[in-house]
Amino acid sequence: MTPRERLLATAAFEPTDRPVRTETIGFWPETLERWHSEGLPPEINEDVSAYLYSGFDPQLPVPLGADKHPGFDPVFEEEVLEEDERFTVKRDISGSTVKVLKDGASTIPAWLDSPVKDSESWDAIKPRLDPVTPGRLEVAKALIEFDAERNWPLCAYFTGLFGTHRHLLGFNRLMIAYKRQPDLLHEISTHWVALWKGVFAGLASMRRPEMASLWEDMCYLNGPMIGPRVFEEFMSPYYHELIGFLKGELDIPIIGLDTDGRCTELIPLFVRAGVNMLWPFEVQAGMDVLQVRRDWPRQFVIWGGMDKRALANGRAAIDAEIERVVPPMLARGGYIPAIDHSVPPDVPFADWQYFLDRVRMVGGGRGD
Q1: DSSP-assigned letter for residue 219
Q2: 24: CB partners within 8 A, 6+ apart
Q3: What would the pLDDT profile of 99-140 be if each residue is shown by its tens digit?
Q4: C-alpha–C-alpha distance, residues 61 and 209, integer Å
Q5: Edge-first strand listing for the sheet containing 154-159
Q6: CA 81 – CA 91 distance, rounded (Å)
Q7: φ, ψ (nearest 5 deg) of residue 78
Q8: pLDDT value at position 365?
Q9: Own/partner pairs for 316-319, CB < 8 Å, 24+ apart?
Q10: Domains and CATH numbers, the chain
Q11: I need a surface site. Which of 184, 266, 285, 288 has the fewest CB within 10 A?
Q12: By C-alpha distance, which of 186, 184, 194 is closest to 123?
């Protein structure tokens, strides 16, 4: 099977020649830096090259904002506002003011300010969210031309609605806005639907994507950042309209959604809106993909769910985690074997390679 055929068959719960090989959603920069001293070639220094080096099934990834920004075109130019020996305060490409470690270590930036505070600042920033900005789909055009035979799936990663609200207002202001500025949030949401309808219509005119995946990251260790009632009021109507368009008008078969943390309470709302792939199911947040699959036998593809912490605990722990998850999940179908987030820097390079070999043997052999 081609990578495109394999992904589509997995999403349809149909038999495949072997499981999709995408065993992590990424690598910490510090992980790759460590591995350079353990045998990883120095030119493998970011996610895409690490995916290819690790033998992942190739895809054509179209980045449309997601965790970086809400889909701006153009993005803001980064600007350093102040700095000292340890920290830099800057305006990032999303227009937010953040405080980061000067040495570039992978930590969550400290948020200081956001680009949208009211209707006036929203109107000022809205031109950056025009669906037909010239050049917005240049990366997609180049990828489509590269894969003329359509052997690789075209996967567009865009910013979900909670993610958009959070990018624009910042987390603290967003939580207050649900009570004090609901009209502003609904106005942004209406534009969110129009933006992505336009962008995906343009993309589909060149080639229909196999997957459109929303970045949300709207759950903590113990549960979602907003409850079902707020979700139903501020997100569900817009989810239904956009996903209905993507699946109905454009015939995009896979609607993915990425959220960390414990998302159990929101799964029924995602499914009702039309999402049919979820990831990465963090074990340390209480997510158990075996139980999720029992609760939802065929409604969505599960990507992930193996505890990344096992990779740092030796090969017996790696074997036990693979055996706990992979055979029963593959037996039920609609599963992409993977750890539950990016590979952290406490994982030895040799044990990452061991993990890949073992998970692929358990899943149906090492060869293609």
Answers
A1: B
A2: 308, 338, 339, 341, 342, 343
A3: 999 877 777 789 999 999 999 999 999 999 999 998 899 999
A4: 10
A5: 60-64, 154-159, 211-215, 254-259, 277-280, 301-303, 335-336
A6: 7
A7: -65, 140
A8: 53
A9: 318/351, 318/354, 318/355, 318/358, 319/358
A10: 3-73+115-364 (3.20.20.210), 77-114 (no CATH)
A11: 288
A12: 184
Q: Is the peptide bond before 109 cis (omega within 30 degrees of 0)?
A: no
What three-state secondary structure class fits 257? strand
DSSP letter string, 154-177: EEEEEE-HHHHHHHHH-HHHHHHH
3-state class (DSSP) for residue 197 = helix
Per cent of the chain over pLDDT 70 is 99
Structure-token match 């990016």, residue found: 342
Nearest C-alpha neighbor of 159 from the set 95, 225, 63, 275: 63
Helix (H) or strand (E) holding 303: strand 301-303
Please give the Cα distance from 244 to 141 (Å, whole number). Answer: 25
pTM above 0.85, yes or no: yes
Residue pair 255/212 in contact by the 8 Å Cβ criterion: yes
